[in-house]
Amino acid sequence: MNASVGAAFLGNAPLVARLRSQLARERLPHAMIFTGPDGVGKRTFALRVAQALNCGARDAHGCECGRCGSCRAVDAGSHPDVSTVSVEAGSTRIRIEQIRELRTRLELAVAPGSAQVFLIDPAERMNPASANAMLKALEEPPDRTYFVLITTNLHELMPTIRSRCQVYRFLPLGMEEMLEAGPDDELVVRWARGSVGRALATDPVELRALRDAVLAFVESAVDAGGATWPALFAESADLARSREEYGEKLRAVGVVVADILYAGHGLEDRIVNVDVRERIRQIASRLDPPALVRIADWIRFTERALKNHVNRQLLTDALALTLNAETAPMLEDAGWRDR
Ligand SMILES: [Zn+2]
Description:
Layout: H1 13-24, E1 31-35, H2 42-54, H3 69-76, E2 82-85, H4 96-106, E3 116-120, H5 128-139, E4 145-151, H6 159-164, E5 166-169, H7 175-181, H8 186-192, H9 196-201, H10 204-223, H11 229-240, H12 243-264, H13 277-285, H14 289-306, H15 312-323, H16 328-334
Parallel strand pairs: 1-4, 1-5, 2-3, 3-4
Helix pairs in contact: 1-2, 2-3, 4-5, 10-11, 10-12, 10-15, 11-15, 12-13, 12-14, 14-15
């Protein structure tokens, strides 16, 4: 194996090999879409491609050297022919003016041996006008010009754009690759579900604190009765307090609840919180099959509700009531899922 930077890219080996081979044979498509979940290396690898296209010392396998002036300029974000079009501060969409500027740059001559590379990231943030302008650029790309549209959701791109691009699907990394690329912490890696970006952004101490709080909440909900409900609703309010953190907290609740479902259905190998497996098993053993169905319903309801600006505490209150054998039947009649 050669020691080039390109060889060290972790994950998605078949896809990376295919792109490298296309690069080596000068067969790289001019318009590409890199799609896949957050944090699996789409942008990182798009920059590697940009390096390889411009590297003066590219090897026979299509790998950039990573050390020459051009490769370093791409790393530093200062290469004159490699640009990213993204959402600008104060905006939520990629504007048509940005795509017009890109198209103006297409008119400029590219230095011999160089390639012009545009990363559109995140491509699904183009508004209809910018997407249409982009389409024109994709229709007739000048020689030595490449576009990489990066997205987490291929289906948010216009079909006409999709049909003009070669689509490369990035997958979540496997456990082994994650442990190699991400932090040396099994719980963090398991929670990240194949996303190196998410694993690296996770503070292990904060994760454990949040997870423990969620687990304690779930345990108290199963045991709750009479006088303990006020304290439980206070905890629920606490989980729902901050809008900024709420998405993350609810995701944590979802991971713990899913683990309980896995334990309840004998799918132990899917459990994320392996360090507290016994507590998860304990909770699952106290829930009857209808309760497992109810909490699966809760997960579905929550995913839908979050898109509709629901009262945040309602979700955690509903979970507590769902988990408790005494209150669950009352909840059935309340019709909360229809809200
Ligand atoms: Zn180089």
